[in-house]
Amino acid sequence: MAKTPDFAKTFQDMMANFPVDTSSFQEAFKSQGALGEKLARVALTAAERSTDISARWAKDTISRMGELAVVKREPSDYAKSLSDFASASAEVAAEHMAAFAEVAKKVQMDTVDLMLTAGKDVADDARTVAENVARDNQMAVKKAAATTATVAAK
Fold first, then answer.
1. Is 1's pLDDT higher than 70?
2. DSSP string covering 90-140, please?
3. What domain range includes position 54?
4. Domain for residue 124, yes or no?
5. End-to-end CA distance of the chain
6. What domain of life is recorded for the organism (predicted)?
7. How many domains does the chain divide into?
């Protein structure tokens, strides 16, 4: 009587011949971690610079407010003092807003640079992984075909 082939054993052998390389996953996690670290550094540098700008702006405003608190002889001096404060505040606001714009511009440029670099790295890694997987799969298919042929011959 004909013996029924053991397909479970064949399937196990076939799957054993398809190795899974986890090093590509490990490299992807490392790459993502490095990208996250670089992006965090960009964000923290921007936050530090923004805080410095805000602190300078507050110090300038507070020092100018001291001039408003000084007692004046004439009521018109209060109006002049307030007008001077408003003009100086508007001028300082423009300077500080320009400084904030420079920070935002630098963050944008650094982020785009990081993303372009990461995209190139990912494309290179993907190409390498695809080549390795294709090569490994071709070898596994040949080995599985040979194993299947051997089992079928029995």
1. no
2. HHHHHHHHHHHHHHHHHHHHHHHHHHHHHHHHHHHHHHHHHHHHHHHHHHH
3. 29-115
4. no
5. 13
6. Bacteria
7. 1
